[in-house]
Write a structure and sequence with these properties.
By secondary structure, the chain is mostly helical. It has one domain. The protein contains nine helices and no strands. The longest helix has 35 residues. GO terms for molecular function: endopeptidase activity. Keywords: Membrane, Transmembrane, Transmembrane helix.
Length: 241
């Protein structure tokens, strides 16, 4: 038996015994959509009054993560969950390191093949894309903000929400892989980036696999953070050159 009171046999990982009911799931998904839509409309409204687009985009991004964190905390208080119930369970680094690095390499192969396919069809990301704007005109200050946002906040908050809460809740009703596909679609779609939907969907499936394989958020957070940090640094180098 581990510290959370779960019965374990030798070599068995702790399982997630808690689940959300349908009301919880609808409220969580409604809350996520409301946060995205509300902050988007608020940002567009402020842009008409205050012409500092990049500042407003950063404000939107940080407020989104803060709102997600508050949603998670609210659920924690209402349901009386521990952080372990969300998936924050210890797992040795030596156990997960090779798997995380191997799957990270796989996601890059997918990204490269997808980028080559888009290039062959003459498609390039639109200049109005919010990610292009945030990663453009890189300075030391904005690079730190990008790394903080993409490399730390987003992996911690989004993995807790999309894998720990949404996938964990859907799995109780739809089964593992149907829940994985649905949660990955939601994860990718809510980034509102059409040309990046497929590789982000694949990333979502890989993150679910890691979470389910080790019954812990640490591996998926590690891969998510690694993916975002490397992508941010590569984008910064390209922009500087």
């Amino acid at each position: 038996m581990d510290n959370n009171g779960l019965n374990l046999t030798d070599g068995e990982s702790p399982r997630c015994d808690r689940k959300l009911n349908w009301v919880d799931l609808v409220l969580v998904l409604g809350g996520v959509i409301s946060i995205y839509v509300g902050l988007a409309f608020g940002t567009f409204w402020l842009m008409d009054l205050w012409p500092h687009e990049r500042v407003l985009m950063y404000l939107n991004a940080f407020l989104t993560q803060l709102s997600f964190a508050l949603l998670i905390y609210f659920l924690k208080r209402v349901r009386s969950w521990t952080w372990a119930d969300f998936g924050w369970r210890d797992v040795p680094l030596r156990v997960i390191l090779s798997k995380v690095l191997g799957l990270y390499a796989l996601t890059w192969v997918v990204n490269i093949c997808y980028a080559i396919a888009l290039f062959n069809y003459g498609f390039t990301p639109p200049e109005t894309d919010v990610y292009s704007k945030l990663l453009g005109d890189v300075s030391g200050y904005t690079l730190i903000l990008n790394l903080l946002l993409a490399g730390i906040l987003a992996p911690l908050v989004e993995e807790t929400l999309f894998r720990g809460v949404i996938f964990g809740g859907l799995q109780a009703y739809f089964g593992k892989w149907t829940a994985a596909v649905i949660s990955a679609i939601i994860f990718s779609a809510l980034h509102f980036q059409a040309y990046g939907f497929f590789p982000r969907f694949v990333l979502g499936i890989v993150l679910v696999y890691l979470y389910d394989r080790y019954k812990s958020l640490y591996p998926s957070v590690g891969l998510h953070a690694l993916n975002n940090i490397v992508a941010t640094l590569i984008a910064a180098k390209i922009m500087i050159e």
